[in-house]
Design goal:
Blueprint lengths: L4 H8 L3 H40 L4 H31 L2
Length: 92
């Protein structure tokens, strides 16, 4: 059985560089998740928009306009997430 006490002792004696490394890792993971989430969201949006246009071709202009607006909103949220992640990184 592995004892957890050496791990707890090592974690209790962390330095500023140790916490900075974890902060930078978290910022990188946060930026990556924001980009992946935006990619998935825009991909699903485009797929559903194409499906809607195929079912009702007369609504193509409205669906396309709405899809572009929603894609811009999704991209804005992703950009905000990436900026916040890099601001967190600069704190360390």
């Amino acid at each position: 059985m592995v004892s957890i006490f050496p791990l707890l002792q090592a974690a209790a004696t962390f330095t500023k560089e140790y916490s900075g490394a974890w902060g930078m890792l978290g910022a990188g993971v946060g930026a990556g998740l924001a980009a992946i989430g935006a990619g998935i969201g825009i991909g699903r949006l485009a797929g559903q928009a194409m499906d809607g246009m195929a079912r009702q071709p007369e609504m193509q202009a409205k669906i396309q306009t709405s899809a572009i607006i929603f894609a811009a909103l999704i991209e804005g949220v992703a950009l905000f997430g990436v900026v916040i992640a890099f601001l967190i990184q600069r704190k360390f």
